[in-house]
Design a protein that fits this description.
With 418 residues, this protein is an alpha/beta fold. It is built from 17 helices and 15 strands. Helix 1 (3-20) packs across helix 2 (29-37), helix 2 (29-37) runs antiparallel to helix 3 and helix 6 (126-137) crosses helix 7 (160-166).
Length: 418
């Protein structure tokens, strides 16, 4: 479906709705579709489904001003329905500009398009930055969050990738930790709740980035969180700071964050290996050469570096896109053809192992992340988003690139020498 056709269909739908009267016929996608169905050109049934999803999202994210065909008249979407409005020429120009920007922010984004944006500051490392970006995006899902563990020697860029990618996400959603002891994580991150007599750590819709390997004891304590065992987890910790001696405190961790670990240690416990995508940055001379130039430019001439970034407005569009995805507040991302996915997974990886039970979960999460990235082009019913075959196909393509090292439970940096 072309952008022009989609735009005209949306505006026609709004105009037809107004003919019935905004009070008697409130603005709902179902009623709009009933009006449009007889007008829709033959063979455009898929366009009808797509526009239904888009109109739902427009309602959810609060897009309040729309212009119909021929730029006359103009409508304003209110809580009670559509209302006739007249705008000044300046306001019309502003609306036109907003509509164009909205089209750029919400246009269909392929993996290739995404890579063209991410490569502006992260050279090479295509699979690493795609997996990590999608993992961060899953924080805006109900329970599809992906965990990533970067493991490689020093100066390979293992922390650089998540730090750079986090720039695209709202700052309030990113928690970056250089180091944390097992107890300080609970005390410094949480807030005391008098009613529950517990420290509450709310990690819903958060991206948690550990810039260095957490304390082993903290890792062990986080395992139920990384496994998504329960939405609220109760921990009992010993507080050594009490004046009257040791005292047990209750800590409740709420929600599932997307967690990114960065460490120079190549040894990995099997418990952690099965709970994370294990990644290693590339170490090719070409990547290092391009990385040296970018770092020198950023450090030596920040003004020129800023001008370099401003050449890519797509970066700002991606930031806005993520904000709109967050505001859409999708309840669940439904993957309908689970049987076909499982059969394909077993066909590709016939020697089944216990860890494959978690690998299939991560594959499903990749599918859900890809659907979320293009939610304006997916079916949405009652706040639930439906993944399509394209999402499944791309998820398998990404998973295949790292599957062998994941199956062995070792960092790709080591696997390439085997």
């Amino acid at each position: 479906m072309s952008d022009e056709f989609k735009w005209n269909l949306r505006q026609f739908a709004l105009a037809k709705t107004l003919e019935k009267g905004p009070v008697a016929n409130p603005f709902t996608p179902d009623k709009i579709l009933q009006e449009v169905r007889c007008w829709l050109p033959k063979g455009e049934e898929e366009a009808l489904k797509a526009i239904a999803g888009e109109l739902n999202v427009m309602l959810n994210i609060g897009l309040i001003e729309i212009t119909p065909i021929n730029n006359e008249p103009y409508f304003c979407l209110t809580e009670k329905g559509l209302k006739f409005v007249k705008f000044t020429e300046d306001r019309l120009a502003q609306i036109s500009s907003e509509n164009k920007r909205w089209s750029e922010v919400t246009k269909k984004l392929t993996i290739e398009d995404l890579l063209k944006i991410l490569v502006t500051t992260i050279k090479h490392d295509n699979i690493n930055k795609l997996i990590t970006f999608l993992a961060m995006l899953t924080t805006y899902t109900e329970e599809a969050q992906i965990n990533v563990s970067f493991r490689a020697p020093s100066s390979t860029g293992k922390s650089y990738i998540p730090i750079e990618l986090s720039q695209y996400f709202p700052p309030e959603d990113v928690i970056m930790i250089a180091y944390s002891s097992p107890t300080s994580f609970y005390h410094d991150t949480g807030n005391w709740d008098n009613e529950k007599q517990a420290i509450i750590i709310n990690l819903e819709r958060k991206i948690l980035i550990f810039l260095d390997q957490p304390h082993d004891e903290l890792l062990r304590r986080l395992r139920p969180l990384l496994s998504h065992d329960q939405k609220e987890l109760l921990y009992k910790i010993t507080d050594k700071r009490e004046k009257k001696g040791l005292r047990t405190k209750n800590v409740i961790i709420r929600g599932f964050p997307s967690v990114i670990f960065c460490t120079g240690s190549l040894k990995i416990d099997e418990q952690e290996a099965t709970r994370n995508f294990i990644l290693s940055p590339e170490t090719s001379s070409e990547k290092i050469r391009e990385g040296i130039y970018l770092k020198a430019l950023k450090k030596g001439n920040p003004i020129a570096f800023k001008e370099y970034l401003e050449q890519f407005p797509e970066r700002e569009f991606l930031k806005e896109r993520i904000k709109e995805i967050k505001k859409a507040n999708i309840k669940h991302i439904i993957v309908e053809n689970v049987d076909d996915i499982v059969n394909e997974f077993q066909r590709r990886y016939p020697k089944l192992k216990p860890r494959h039970q978690r690998d299939i979960e991560r594959l499903i999460s990749l599918i859900q992340a890809l659907a979320l990235l293009n939610l304006w082009y997916r079916k949405i019913v009652d706040g639930n988003l439906y993944a399509n075959e394209e999402d499944v196909k791309v998820a398998f393509q990404l998973f295949d690139q790292i599957a062998e090292s994941q199956e062995l439970g070792i960092p790709p940096f080591i696997y390439k020498f085997l």
